[in-house]
Amino acid sequence: DAKTTQPTSMDCAEGRAANLPCNHSTISGNEYVYWYRQIHSQGPQYIIHGLKNNETNEMASLIITEDRKSSTLILPHATLRDTAVYYCIVRVRAQGSGYALNFGKGTSLLVTP
Amino acid sequence: DTGVSQNPRHKITKRGQNVTFRCDPISEHNRLYWYRQTLGQGPEFLTYFQNEAQLEKSRLLSDRFSAERPKGSFSTLEIQRTEQGDSAMYLCASSLSPLGGSSYNSPLHFGNGTRLTVT
Questions:
Q1: How much is the pLDDT for B2?
Q2: In this complex, which of B40, B56, B91 lies closest to A100 when CB atoms are compared?
Q3: Is the pLDDT assigned to residue A96 strictly greater than 50?
Q4: Which of B1, B7, B32, B104 should one mutate to test binding to chain A, selecting the residue with the greatest count of A CBs within 10 A?
């Protein structure tokens, strides 16, 4: 199973780009990288996912290195509402026919005024 | 689309009592997941349904835990003889399964959870 490593916490000034790194050096060729975030007292929220190519949506950009061993989630203009725990997940195939996402502890991002 | 709904939001119970939580997924989603989250930790996978079939259970799901999804729509998670260690946030998520044998997992849509406190 591919595991991920993320910094425990990060700070970012409001209006600046937040760059959240993730290492997944044991990722397999067909495993996707997913990013979720969890704002206090809420359930996790899907942000973005990718396989090989860089991806962008209305929330964020995902940059995946060519060897796929690491990725970076970019929030281009962080706001106070982006303060949350960010989880980088490599899809793990559970026993049987199901697929489970293992969240780990994530990175606690604090956006400051 | 009203999102994933979980009830109740909070539950306080005494040790030894049984509790049941309900999850209503997004209507067209055929997959439903239960997760547990303790303070300072990320969500941990408990079990997963494809329609009404429970296809996978984590080792975390002890014999005191049972989950059902009788008609492939809403799901219930019951904990019997609750223990203080069961205190946690119980999260439900749903998704739409991909076509064919793709390794891609559709994004999970989570509810805001049921917070259980066992005293």
A1: 75
A2: B56
A3: no
A4: B104
